[in-house]
Task: inverse folding
């Protein structure tokens, strides 16, 4: 018995069969997966889940594939840990980090969405996969396609970081740089998807792909001892992750894994040079104004026209949360602060999370006694340019291999 019933339009509610489609042909609303939750409730329990291997597929009944996963079988179950030293620096007593900077295999939360998308693409019979990317998705599609024996075409803005470029090409994917921003890339890819008939993970199979993000939420609830956090801070690009974490909480209640209602306040974070969702939340608007020329050190979040922006705004607002948009300097400070206090080197998107968390704590938008989860979604080794451009990290002493030389260095460094 299939647990995935099919697709449904989020706006008009019309149902569709499982297929590589993403918009409603009647009202152009986005399509979403529908499940047989009663049957899922019969099949899973905390015990069943806990008995399974530590990866995101321990929640397989709530992920939209029909057979066994064939791509990304080891993705997920990344660490959740108490961050007392960072908490102390920010005045928060119960702070946790969920660390997808160490997700397998490409060190970002995108491995979750790609594991689901490529498993589904194979079920649909595709042999070529593709994506429009701000970097991490490119890395993950390239790596997972290589292992699955799929051909991969990856499109991204031509000015991305070296780590994102090398971390795509090394796997043998076809990388095409586009002179333009992400929204230009995305527009082109919609045309290519229609013409070439490939599985574009975040275009024609987007409804399946996006569901992979839910696993971030399931895991953190399980890792918190089957409890929901009071507050969560989520970095936003297209605005999908923040809405899918909320959906994951609702589903866990619906299938009887935890008790409701969801009282978690959702806080969104974007870099100040590309913050259409944050701006709308702050202006108390229902709709965002697209950013035409994104300029932020957080390139992985630089989407000027976020596909799920409208839903992200609603999610933040209805939960009683807020949104913040740290500057480039605050983003790099956030990266350094997390590294120094908790020993985690995150990419610029994680610096956005920490920069926003710091502002939210200082503005008393987050209760200092609440349980707070900060979502770290990518790895710092992929965005070294942000650090070298904004700090003096490359200035350090070089001495001869002589004890006297070290003695002299140590004495003078102590005196300084
Ligand atoms: C893609 C991405 C996000 C946000 O994803 P959306 O679901 O598009 O909002 C956050 N962090 C990192 C590192 C990403 O690559
Ligand atoms: Zn519709």
Result:
């Amino acid at each position: 018995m299939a647990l995935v019933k099919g697709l449904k339009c989020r706006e008009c509610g019309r149902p569709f069969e499982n297929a590589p489609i993403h918009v409603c042909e009647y009202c152009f609303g986005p399509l979403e997966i529908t499940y047989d939750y009663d049957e899922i409730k019969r099949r899973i329990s905390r015990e069943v889940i806990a008995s399974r291997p530590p990866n995101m597929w321990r929640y397989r009944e709530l992920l939209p594939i029909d057979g066994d996963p064939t791509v990304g079988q080891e993705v997920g179950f990344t660490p959740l840990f108490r961050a007392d030293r960072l908490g102390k620096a920010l005045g928060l007593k119960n702070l946790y980090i969920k660390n997808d900077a160490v997700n397998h295999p490409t060190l970002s939360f995108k491995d979750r969405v790609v594991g689901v998308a490529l498993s589904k693409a194979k079920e649909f019979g595709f042999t070529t996969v593709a994506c429009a990317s701000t970097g991490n998705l490119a890395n993950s599609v390239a790596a997972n396609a290589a292992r699955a024996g799929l051909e991969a075409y990856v499109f991204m803005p031509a000015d991305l970081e070296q780590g994102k470029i090398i971390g795509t090409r090394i796997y043998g994917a076809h990388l095409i740089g586009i002179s333009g921003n992400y929204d230009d890339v995305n527009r082109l890819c919609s045309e290519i998807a229609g013409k070439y008939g490939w599985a574009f993970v975040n275009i024609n199979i987007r409804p399946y792909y996006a569901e992979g993000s839910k696993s971030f939420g399931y895991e953190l609830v399980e890792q918190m001892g089957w409890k929901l956090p009071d507050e969560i801070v989520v970095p936003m690009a297209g605005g999908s992750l923040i809405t899918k974490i909320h959906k994951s909480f609702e589903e866990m209640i619906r299938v009887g894994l935890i008790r409701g209602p969801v009282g978690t306040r959702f806080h969104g974070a974007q870099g100040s040079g590309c913050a259409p969702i944050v701006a709308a939340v702050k202006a108390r608007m229902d709709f965002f104004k697209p950013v035409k020329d994104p300029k932020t050190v957080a390139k992985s979040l630089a989407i000027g026209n976020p596909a799920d922006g409208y839903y992200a705004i609603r999610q933040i607002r209805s939960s009683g949360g807020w949104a913040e948009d740290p500057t480039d300097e605050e983003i790099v400070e956030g990266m350094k602060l997390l590294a120094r206090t908790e020993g985690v080197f995150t990419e610029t998107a994680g610096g956005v999370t920490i920069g926003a968390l710091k502002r939210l704590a200082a503005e008393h938008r987050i209760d200092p006694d609440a349980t707070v989860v900060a979502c770290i979604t990518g790895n710092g080794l992929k965005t070294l340019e942000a650090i070298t451009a904004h700090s003096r990290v490359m200035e350090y002493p070089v001495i001869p291999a002589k004890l006297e030389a070290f003695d002299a260095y140590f004495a003078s460094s102590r005196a300084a």
